[in-house]
Design a protein that fits this description.
Layout (H helix, E strand, L loop, with lengths): L10 E5 L7 E6 L2 H9 L33 H5 L2
Antiparallel strand pairs: 1-2
Length: 79
């Protein structure tokens, strides 16, 4: 799954053991989670929480389109 990371987003990184200069994004925190991290002292007080929701962060269960599989392998061979 791909998630867009924007400037100001709060993310959890995992450093690679075999590549010192690279890290992987493990988790992107939503604004509520980031506020909780700040309240628990896990983020500095001066950290600004990005409250804007960008594309891909919203629950879009109502907009899901499912496609049925049509035909089979025999159809491809006849083309």
């Amino acid at each position: 799954m791909k998630v867009w990371i924007n400037q100001g987003d709060i993310v959890l990184l995992g450093l690679r053991d075999f590549q010192d200069s690279k890290a992987d994004v493990i988790l992107k925190y939503n604004p509520d989670e980031a506020r909780n991290l700040k309240a628990y002292g896990e983020l500095p007080e001066h950290a600004k929480i990005n409250d804007t929701v960008t594309f891909g962060e919203e629950e879009e269960d109502d907009n899901i389109i499912e496609f049925d599989e049509v035909g089979g392998e025999d159809d491809i061979e006849n083309i």
